[in-house]
Records
---
Amino acid sequence: MISRKVMTLNEFILQSQKGFPFATGELSNLLYDISFAAKIVNREVNKAGLVDILGTTGNVNVQGEEVKKLDVFAHEQFLSSLRISGHCKGVASEECDDFIDFDNKHAEGAKYVVCIDPLDGSSNIDVNVSIGTIFAIYRRVSTTPHCTLEDFLQPGNQLVASGYVIYGSSTMLVYTTGTRVNGFTLDPSIGEFCLSHENIKTPEKGKIYSINESYQQRFSPGVNEFIRHCKEEDKAEGRPYSSRYIGSLVADFHRNLIKGGIYIYPSLSNRPKGKLRLLYECNPMAFLIEQAGGRATNGHQRILDIQPTKLHQRSPLYIGSNDMVNKAEDFIRAESQLLAEV
Ligand code: AHG
């Protein structure tokens, strides 16, 4: 008999379900649908460099097919996979102004909705930098035949599952259903995501800080103080810390998750709410980092406790290893106290 050590994502999901005799399998199927669409997006992302040969957006490639921008392609791919399977009642996508209700027969009675950033960091595609998909799964709160805005405007503490796919030097899917964070690497030879990073825990103490320092003049004094602290020489504490910023949230987050560090997209003087979207980027990553033992805040409040009021709402984000997020918050708190005293 041939024995193998590899466990595929599907096998893992099925095995995890065994402990829950009343599970309907709907969430498992939904995760499968997302992983399936991710494989198709991965195939196209890997071909991105061929765009000059095959044709650019709006053009027709050698097979006579219209070539779509990759972020539009990814959006459509996830949407169609989720719509066809019927395990999800609706989707809110970073690529769409409004949420989409699946009114097809398959989706009748489906109890989940998905918030998704189909291709985050897409401005990096042309230069072969890692990009990713970020997803968040909620249980519907409305009981109407069609899903409603309130199904999507739930705080992150109501998340059922979240995860991301990183299209990098290898392609990985990392997700949590609220207990552990597990990572699966795509084996292209068999077309399966295989368990490669079981029960990921982020280091308690980080040594990497990730922030776009070119905005330094737009940062608040507290953020600048934190950066100064990161750069300061302190042998005992292992400072200066390393600065690493790819400009692709999934890639920056993934590295810091494994190695320990903090990712910051703060409030800027010209962008008080920062850049990142609460529903599609901050919440799913915050749910993951907390399950991995880290923290995520907007500088003042736990990300997962923020009540969203709009689909495309933005939020500052401080996310990563406990000690670094705590330290950044200390500086922000000190800044607020100073301002209050003036
Ligand atoms: P986009 O999808 O437009 O490339 O945005 C990417 C996001 C996020 O992934 C990344 O961390 C951040 O924007 C980078 O923004 P800055 O260029 O302002 O640093």
Note: The chain has a mean pLDDT of 91.
---
Amino acid sequence: MKTVVILGAQWGDEGKGKIVHLLSDRADVVCRYQGGNNAGHTVVSGGKKWVFHLLPSGILKEKKACIIGNGVVLDPYAFSEEMTLVQNEGVDTASRLYVSDRAHLIMPYHRALDSMYEESLGIGTTKRGIGPAYSYKYARIGIRLCDLDEREYLEWITKRALDEVNATIVGKYGRNPVTVREVMDALEEYGEIMKGYVTDTSRLLAEYLKEGRRIIFEGAQGVLLDVDFGTYPYVTSSNPVTGGVLTGLGIGPGAVGQVLGVVKAYTTRVGEGPFPTELEGPTGESIRERGCEFGASTGRPRRCGWFDAVAVRYAVRVSGVQALAMTKFDVLDGIDRLPVCTGYRIDGRDTDRFPANVFVLERAVPVYEEFAGWESTAGVKRYEDLPAEATRYIAALEKLIGVPISIVSTGPDETETIIRGPLAVDAG
Ligand code: IMP
């Protein structure tokens, strides 16, 4: 199968946007399968920097089909804003972007609820309404794109949703109630924005797969933020893991050719939650500055730390990752000694397992192995041109994690990349 899943194998922000954009040259189709406009996928192309929150990162490559699957929660205002931005720059998006009719809509009240919940829960969410939209989906009071033309249904489901919305907004937070009229007006606007994009994307994908097209399944966030496998409750509300590809697009397991995990050469996290290798002093600050580690969605400074091989090994296992792409390698240039976390000491015991409970993970003290640093890797395009210390670092990580590092990114531009392969999208 000439398809590849590209997912984050840390806490998000691994540089998936660059890798997807780069590999989309070799693909025909790029699909998003989960998350919403909480993502921030940065792409540098032709000297210009783009940040995509919702649109698949293949959108800049004209003639590539882009799919937003049923597993995504979609805010039409964010969709419209991003489409306008891309179109204003002269990118032709006509007849190549498809949105699933079964995807759930992010409603204005979901955004309001996200902010209210955040005050009491302190997860550090993006406040884009992602969590409430997924909660309503599972509570069977969500509104989907396929509902937009069915006025009677819309009124019926809106009333059911508003019972819950107002019980919380009015009952718990003492705000003004949301009216059916307001929601129906917003839905009318949603219908206008989404006209012409909505289709049965699972069916479309089945056709593409039958034709042997090369497809990228683009994950958002990362495995350690997955609602099932991440550092719960400090997680997002969807499944970035490979399992999410199948449920988020309506395809079978045979459709997945290769799973490529993206990791940074170090670790970052935005929002709250445990982070064993976090560096709180000047070294962390220096990595933040050099790596421009500020949230692409919210501008928040990202927490930075050393590479955590325990966490990545775990992410690789639960997602069936077969190869890694390592980004921001050059950000480590010039650092003398590079500690890598190879195990945790928890309550006086050594372990190489990633604990399920966050209070336990908070107590984990990283066990480090140190590697010699190197002078410069910035912009290097061939593996043979890397300094020996850099290839030693890569080889050591491959051994610790158990999968090959097939791509190494040495700068933000798509050309600043070493591709060692093999990649499923290159299959003949
Ligand atoms: P939510 O996805 O907005 O509900 O936020 C839940 C958690 O996931 C918070 O800690 C966010 O900072 C984090 N998060 C959501 N999207 C991203 C992302 O694209 N990159 C990194 N962290 C993210």
Note: The mean pLDDT is 96.
